Fold these 3 entries.
Entry 1:
Amino acid sequence: MPVPMNIPQTYVQQKAAASGSSFYYAFLFLPAAQRAAITAFYAFCREVDDVVDETQDAQVAERKLAWWSQEVSQAFAGRPTHPVMQALMPHTSHYGIQEAQLQAIIEGCQMDLEYTRYQDYAGLQRYCHLVAGVVGEVAARIFGQTQEATTQYAHTLGQALQLTNILRDVGEDAQRGRIYLPIEELQRFEVKASDIMHGRYSERFTALMQFQAQRAHQLYDQALALLPAADRRAQKPGLMMASIYRTLLREIEASNFQVLHQRIALTPLRKLWLAWKMQALGRM
């Protein structure tokens, strides 16, 4: 007789693989139990993020996020209905995944419906913490965190990864009516929002982007310095992500920040090579 298909597990595996994300390459080297947990968690993150990116009507998106918030509460009460939550819940106790963490990620996605601009970096930092820092916090626990200080490493690395995403997607986000770069910093470098919206490059825009890239590099350096030696081996998947995304950041810099009309990306083979190099050789 054929073995019955595990529908929730199959669903989250397909969701993770279909995304084409760099995260997928970092998961490949994990033991089966950890890989199942992080794949289910990543699928959850993709589901709620896709609500904002793929739903044109903001009111519909709000209702969908409200549904996800309710689904998370029901799941932690023992009644998951969505395949993602059905796949994730068996791992929550073992890896210390909390309802508040999943709700924080939903809150971050909600910010995308409420804000298209951020006045200052402090506001942007809060957004990055919810959609990436908390994600890093949960992931670090799944990877095998043993030291309390590793949480701060995970938060800082999440900030670096999200800021790299923001720099890569400046043009695409502008087409959706969003500019994540803080208003204060656009004003400091005398870059008009309309220039970004219309894809107009300038020396001022390049200087603004160089400033943002340097901030991201500083965050990568801070994250690596914060990671306790005792957890370095367990946190290799996060270090793979750091390697892949920092390489992407350098590609963006090498292009002279030509991100308004195109999406700069690494090939799947290059991502796999960077992930393997960290796994096998322990270096970026």
Entry 2:
Amino acid sequence: MLVVIFASLICQAMRRRPLTDLTGRLDFNWFNCLAIGAGLGTALMLVPATLLWATGQVHFLPNPGGTNLLLSALALFAAVAVTEEVLFRGFIFQRLLDGLGQWPAQALIAALFLLTHVDAIQNAGPIGYLAGVNIFIASLMFGLAFLRTKSLAMPIGIHFAANFVQGSVLGFGVSGSEEQGLLTPRSPGQTGSREEPSA
């Protein structure tokens, strides 16, 4: 995270522009957008999980050890969201927007985002193509959040909350990595090994 922020500072210094040109001004509106993004990211995971549960596709068991991991998971997913959003929706994306326009910039950054998550696609096995489509669409969504607000706050909020709820609350895998959450998801008839869906 620090390396990405420092590199962004250098790029902005060379252009004689402040870092806030990339991130948006850190004012009340920035933190309001962060909170709205966190709410959207939470809903993005809870709505489909609720539908899966309601239709009997998955059930959730409490994980007594999950609460011990929440603080470290908060820090990890916050760092991941900040790092990836500064990298993918910061300097490179914004220069592409200036040079190529909205949709070429979105497509190129989404392709790069997809390449950096190739492990998640490989770990998904036969449904890897669905994981790839999901990751590509997620990047487009984060980009649209930036375009709508001209700030990284909402993309960071969505990215952080989606990963945190998916992994640390619901117990699903995040980007190909197994997670221990407050809950443990199980498919119908599954009693032993953990389920490892990829997102």
Entry 3:
Amino acid sequence: MNRSIRALYLTLAVGFAVLVVMLGYWQVVAAGELDERADNPYRLEQQRLVDRGRIISADKIILAESVMYREKGKKYYRRYYPQGSLAAQVVGYATPQQGATGLEQQYNRYLAGSYGTGAILDRLRQETKDGADIRLTLDTRVQKTAEALLSGRRGAVVAIEPKTGKVLALASSPAFDLNEVSSDFASIRKQDGAPLLNRSTGGLYPPGSTFKVVTATAALDNGKWSASSTFDDKGVYVVDGKPIYNSGKAKYGLHNLTDALTFSINTTFAQIGDQLGGRKLGREMNRFGFARPTEIDLPSGEVAVSGRYRAGKILPNDQRDEDSARIAIGQENLQVTPLQMAMVAGAVANGGRMMRPYLMRRAITRDGVVVKQQRPEEIDSVASAYVASEVGRMMQSVVSEGTGTEAGLSGLSVAGKTGTAETGDPERNQAWFIGYAPAEDPQVAVAVVIEDTSGTGGTEAAPVAGEVMRTALSIDPVPGEPTT
């Protein structure tokens, strides 16, 4: 009898222990996964009870807000985007069915009111929650200009304040209407041109000659060359038996380094890269942020890493056996984001100091309490103030008399660099421009890429950059409360 009771006791004890373990697993370990499942009815109900905070631009335009509706006498909320497709990939969407992207995902904790002890009590009681508003650095006037100039073309535009890192615009084309995500997400996914991709932060492109700004910085920082160092171009530079030519196989003869950047002379920069070697050029790339994640406040999966790729993997910047001559002119499997190249221009504009780009200025509750705030933050020093000023002066020459004249602004000095990268089709290019203005007191730095075009960086990207900078430099603060 005692043996039977003991066996029964052990069986019950083991069963109870298994039950405790399983409950613990589902309540703790798997709770997050279950909560995120789109078919979780509790999650769907919970999200509909949240009056998410608004996302508001720097010029006080409401980009996202919650709209109340009633169902069976109960009050619920759904997300509404008053500006439709404006900055769609940056703002992102938040729906119970499709989840969240962009700023909606990055700052979900604040937008959904999931911070502080009150949020925990609301969740336990399953009551409605009020989220905090997110105030941005992004200015819709600059954003609209960028998107209008990209309209009908695939590409991206980035505009930042070089002294602070504030992001003024992140435009990606094609885009999509955020209000259609809930009702017609399948159609959006099928559209040509991958509109869900944020090309400004997640698109990877060969940089072409815009990378020569990095090479020029490395050359001057090395001390072996100056802006007036002379070269004798024969039209070709051979590395390991393979020739590097200038565009159109042009020959420039005697010229200096400023001329080389102004007219984008491949052979000169290939020679510099070859003499610098992978280690020294790689160190400069490290300073500029290549081969490491860009520190911007967007979900990490939406921000690609710029650098050299092999078999889909990012490579270190300072390997000895790399073809530094071709890296120096923006080739050798280099793939970069427009954001990264805007940061290159911004670092030169800011006296060699690279600032962390950011979109959110502050999160503020309905009663005016600031619960999170961001301030300018320096990431790295890419060069001395002197070297940066010399590179900037060379970039001014690109716009005043070289390949970037289309980016010029009447009455203002602009510094920049064009790039025309190959696509595999000799008739089609990836057209680039990076730069900043005014050259003497930089207020805006930009990067523009136009995909699959028959034109060049000078004819396609430079005019877009000029108009975006013109808009950024002409805007004034907007008084009053946020509006739709």
